Amino acid sequence: MTRQFVRIGVAIMVTLLALLVVWQFRVVLVYLLISLMVAATLRPLVSRLVGRGLWVRAAWILLYVLIMALFCFGLFLIGKTAIEEIQSLARTVSVQDEWQLPPWLYGTLFQYALAGQLPPPSKLFTALTGEQGELVLPAMLGFAQSLAGLLSDILVILFLSLYWIINKAHFERLWLSLLPSEQRKQARDIWRTIEPDLGAYLRSQMLHSLLAGLVLGLGYWALGSPYPILLALAAALACLIPIAGIFLALLPPLLVGLLTGVQLSLFTGLYTALVLIALGIWVKPRLFNRRWDNPILTLVILIALANTFGIVGILIAPPLSAVFHILWSLLVSHRLAAGAAAQVSDLKKRQDDLIASIQAMPEPRLPLITSSMERLTRLISRAEPILEAALPNDSDTGSPGSGK
Q1: With contact defined as beta carbons under 8 Å apart, do 225 and 272 qualify?
Q2: For residue 81, what are the CA distances in angstroms to 42, 86, 280, 385?
Q3: Which pLDDT tens digit goes with each residue over 16-57?
Q4: Distances from the Cα of 231 to the Cαs of 236, 245, 301, 332, in angstroms?
Q5: Which of 218, 246, 318, 382 has its CA 20 to 30 A from that of 165?
Q6: What is the pLDDT of residue 291?
């Protein structure tokens, strides 16, 4: 009994120590996880180079470099224009002494409550920047430090992702060697099922965000918004956030409307809602198969990670939800369905033996026996296709190396 208590105590202490180590190195684990996600996203691009001739590979590499250069140049222009629009917005706020409200709200209790609770835009701007702008410099220094830290994090993640892409076979052998030999094949199959689906999910999310930003930016410009790039950039970033993204994308047009005019705010807000709903209904399902999409699980993981890692936790919550869903399907649902199918197969064998025993009985047979056997046959025939449909086949789970 004492030895058993000692083993339990040691197991608890080792578990707590492992959790403590994981918590201390949580930032490293997040970097590792994000780099694996980026590697899964970029792997199909690298796979196009495998088995190609020298000139074909050179052409593909040149095309990738050209697309990356155009993408970076586009980001530079968008960032430059967004900064100019932020400066214009700051100038507008600094001289505006009242909020723009619909005409039918003037003179109402809502206007008096808003005036009593919320200061005018100019005073709010002064409170944020200081009387002489003395708070601007510390804010700019903090923003520069955050931007430098973000760029360094992105470089670390990119280098790790390149390592996972180039040394995929070595990486697989390394982490599979940590497992018992009888579990390695199953673990390798699970990994090769998760990675393609995870990469497909992230590519669809990025494409959905870029498409939303492009369509919204053009629409804001056509509607006459003074800040089309800034609003489109905010909406594109909001689209990366699951569940609440569409509501967060509606806030900037409505808030800017309190400065530029209610009519324009309503038009831009309605346009934003229509575009995001249309993309969610008709475009996004064609970009990504939603069989691994579980909103409840995503929400739970999002709340847990947002409390610990902030925006980074919010962005990695959907991929983690998809990974957990795939693992549940492969390790639990598949096993339960296979076990149920095995039981039905055993039941059919027992049925055949019972039919053989009944046929060996002397005539006449009791009507109860005959009707019971007919009912049993009908029940088994109805249950068999349902269980076969419940079994995950290659098209549902994605066989290793199938690219799903």
Answers
A1: no
A2: 29, 9, 28, 59
A3: 887 787 777 777 788 888 888 888 888 888 777 776 778 888
A4: 9, 14, 28, 44
A5: 318
A6: 62
**In the structure encoding, which two tokens stand for residue 391, read together?**
């079994």
One-letter amino acid of 165? I
Q: Let me know the angle formed at the C-alpha of 229 by 272 and 208, rounded to the nearest 5 degrees.
A: 55
Token pair of 98 as six digits: 């009242």
Please count the other Cβ atoms lying within 10 Å of the Cβ belonging to residue 246: 20
The residue assigned the tokens 């038009």 is 267
62 CB neighbour count, 10 Å cutoff: 10
Reading phi first (left if > 0) and then psi (alpha if -120 to 50, else beta), residue 107 is in left
Cβ–Cβ < 8 Å for 326, 195: no
Identify the DSSP state of 122: H
Q: 39: how many CB neighbours lie within 10 A of its CB?
A: 24
Q: How many residues does the chain have?
A: 404
Nearest to 329 by CA among 391, 263, 246, 242: 391
**Coil, helix or strand for 108?**
coil
The rounded distance, in Å, linking the Cα atoms of 84 and 253 is: 17
Phi, psi of 399 (to 5 degrees): -70, 155
Classify burial at 93, counting beta carbons within 10 Å of its beta carbon; exposed 0-12, middle 13-18, buried 19 or more.
middle
